[in-house]
Amino acid sequence: MDSKSLISGLITGIVAGGVSALLSAPASGDETRNYVKTYDWKTLNNRLTRKGRSAAQDWRYAATEGLEAVDGLTQEMKKTYSRYKEEVEPEVESIQQQIKEISDSITELNERIRKESE
């Protein structure tokens, strides 16, 4: 992209923006300047400050609730894991023992078959 087209694009955008602002302004320049001078900026600042405090309180509340929810979830997961260890682990050990016995039996059968085929 060359600088000539960039500059011409910027100038065109500035001119178009200025024309549209002039044509769509709700009041004349004098009225707008007078409105800005007489506007109660302190009230606006107070409203924004109150909203800011309210938003901060909302965030604090949400963070506290989130931490409590995570803590509750953590406690539930610990209970579930404890139940798993108590109920399921003995069954897993039993199944592993049965698999070992079956594996030993298969090995023994393979040895018998090999001896018989010799």
Q: What attributes does this structure have?
A:
single chain, mainly alpha
Describe the structure.
This protein is an all-alpha fold and 118 residues long. Among the domains are: 40-86; 88-118. The chain is 92% helix and 0% strand. The longest helix is centred in the middle third of the chain and has 47 residues, at 41-87. The protein is elongated and about 110 Å long. The relative contact order is 0.03.
Annotation, overall tally of beta strands = 0
User: Beta-strand percentage?
Assistant: under 5%
The major β-sheet equals:
none
> Helix proportion of residues, in percent?
over 70%
Q: What would the average pLDDT be, to the nearest integer?
A: 85
Give the termini distance in whole angstroms. Answer: 85 Å
- Write down the secondary-structure element order: HHHH
The rough form would be described as elongated
Structural class: mainly alpha
Low-confidence stretches: none
Q: How large is the radius of gyration? A: 39 Å
What's the total helix number?
A: 4
